[in-house]
Structure formats: C-alpha cells, structure tokens
Amino acid sequence: MAERKEPPGAPCDTPGRGETCTEVYGARTRTVSFPTFRDVVRQVLHVLLPCPCLACGSPVSEPPRSPGLCSRCLEQLVCPPDRAIPCAFSYRPPLDLVIQAMKFRRLDYLAEPLADLAAPSIRNLVSSAGGIDSVVPVPLHWRRRFHRGYDQAALLASALARRLERPVSNVLRRVRATPAQSLHDRSQRRRNLAGAFLVRTRAQALVRGRKILLVDDVITTGATMEEAARELRRSGALAVQPFAIAWTPDEEEGDENPEEVDNRCV
Ligand SMILES: [Zn+2]
After folding, report:
1. Which pLDDT score, from 0 to 100, does residue 81 have?
2. pTM (2 decimals)?
3. Beta strands 239-247; 87-90: pairing state
C-alpha cells in the first residue's frame, strides 16, 4: 500500500497511484493511502481464498498489510538485545515462520509488511546515524537467486528504502557461494567469507563518499554482513550502517548467511 501526502481539505492533483508521493504542502500534511493493483488483487484473493495466520491458523484481518500473522501472534514478536549490528526482531516464533515463508514458500510480498514492522527501528537508527544516502542489500549468490527466483534481502532493502525515501543501490555482487559454516569457529568463518563480495565495477561512484545502510534479512554472528561492509568501505564508502530484520539468538545454531538458514529450513 502506498502513501501520499496532501493538504487537509484540498484536492491533491499530483498523480502517482501506487507510488510514494514526497510532496509536502506547507507545514500541515496528512497521509492518503492508495492501493496498488497488486494490493487490490491480493485483497480480492484473500476474500476468495482467505489466508490463515502462518503461526496459529487463525484468520488474518488485514491483508495485504499483515505480515501473515493474526493480531495475537503479532503481539508475540520479540525485540533482540542490543547488538553490534542492530536488528528489529529476534528470529523466534512467530517471526521465523514469516521469514521462512517469504524465503522458501515464494511469499515474496511479505517483504512489504515486514518493512512496515521494522520501519520504527530503522528510522531511529538512521536518525541516530545522522542520515544515509542509499540502501544496499547483502546479495545472494546468483545461483541461489536463480533457484529461488528473487533475492529476499533485495526486496526488504527496496521496501525499507521507500519508507526512508532514499534510493536502493544493488552495488554489491556475491562472487563466491559460501558453504554452511555452523561447524566453523569465528576465524574460520571470516576466512571462508574473505573476498565473497565485490562492488560492481560500474557502481563505484554510487559507493564512494556515500553513507550506506546495509540490509540483510537474518543474521547470527554478523560475519557475512561484516565482510559486505568491509568491501563497501574498501570501495570508498564514507560510512556503512548495517541493519537486519532478525537476529538468530542461538549463535551455536549456525551462521548468519542465507545458505545456512536455507539448509535448516528447506
Ligand atoms: Zn496467529
């Protein structure tokens, strides 16, 4: 669902159905929501084929804005403790079921309501970081993206970028598929990840001197995100602020990289 601002009582003549309108008319603004075509299709489909809550099976009241959870399960979301890499939620039930559905059941539209849930955290983070210039996803290796049909971190980064009114830049390329690393210690993980990312040759100008928000879906130790951030800094980024939707509480369970999580959930 897109949001649009216009002055109270005045007709808004700016087109942009399904887009985010950034115009602000003086000091007073109000928000008007316009459904996109996909929103309407999903709403109709929900009436015809209602989707139960991903966690408990109860009816979901507000698709497509709901992240697939009923109101009772939404109240069960857990915030993580302070981490070096800020995260919006702990990767526990019922949020883990939502992320797994987004990644492995082709429910890619869940990226939008997940971004809605994370929006307050991300706005606070960006504000305390003094603002950002662009949003960059931690990319999947092309083989995994080809197999899945989309890259969930890229979808989340785009959704968050729209809410922050900043561009999303797919400047990173994962040049090496890294194996599952749950049996490796931290130094071994770092060695395995060294050189896993490169900034695209033609994207150097989009990195140099920029303040970047680096986004991933799930992390554990943060080693993958640290390596991606290292590559951005090596290419001249002024600052890199990492952020993930969820943090896996049990660091012994596995590595933060999507391959390991895939192995556990497929
Ligand atoms: Zn539920």
Report:
1. 81
2. 0.76
3. parallel
